[in-house]
Structures are given as structure tokens and as C-alpha cells.
């Protein structure tokens, strides 16, 4: 299994970004598996941001509730993280993760300027 993130960049506070995580070489049925988003800021531990179950049920960290939305397109093997009302404290490298396969993507940098 391989996960590839895209969509990171530099935005001003209050702006939006849309991250995508696309799976390949998936040996199971993509629909069956939870995919999660994590982030890691410099000098800090990696923390969970959001996840979506195979059935499409989302879950969010308190710090992003109401601002971030996670969704999936199983036909495209893609999970998307829509990030709105971004804050400087959202600056981090964002990773997607497939828990069932213990597989991480390579990460994409998100930088929010104040």
C-alpha cells in the first residue's frame, strides 16, 4: 500500500487549503478501511487531526472541529481534507495514515502566515 498526499502550501490566516491523500497498490477493498490525517509541527509530537471510516463516518480533533472537513471518494481511492479558517497554529506537515496497514504518506507542508 502506498499513500501520497498533495495540496499543501502557504496561505494567510483565514484562508483555505484542500489536501488529498490518494492510495495505490491497495490490496484490500478501500471502502472497508479507515484513513486518518495527522500533523506534526516543528518540535512537537505528531497529533491526530481527523479520520474517516470506511463507511464515511468522520471524526475530528477538537482543535479543528467546525473548520476542517474530511471526505472520501472510494472510486478514486482518495481521502480529502478541506481546511478552512486556517490559523498560524495549523502550520505543520500533514500526513495521511492507513491504520490497518500501518502505512504513512510522505507528508505535505502547510504553512499559515499571520
Overall description:
The structure is a single chain. The chain is mostly beta strands and 114 residues long. The protein is built from no helices and 11 strands. It has strands at residues 2-6, 9-12, 17-24, 35-40, 47-52, 58-60, 68-73, 78-83, 92-98, 103-104, 108-113. The radius of gyration is 13 Å and the shape is globular.
Short description:
The protein is mostly beta strands and 114 residues long.
* Radius of gyration using CA atoms only: 13 Å
Classify the beta-strand content into a percent band: over 45%
Count helical runs.
Answer: 0
Mean pLDDT across all amino acids: 96
Major sheet: size, sense and barrel closure? 7 strands, mixed
Distance between the termini: 37 Å
Write the layout of secondary structure elements.
Elements: E1 2-6, E2 9-12, E3 17-24, E4 35-40, E5 47-52, E6 58-60, E7 68-73, E8 78-83, E9 92-98, E10 103-104, E11 108-113
Parallel strand pairs: 2-11
Antiparallel strand pairs: 1-3, 3-8, 4-5, 4-9, 5-6, 7-8, 9-10, 9-11
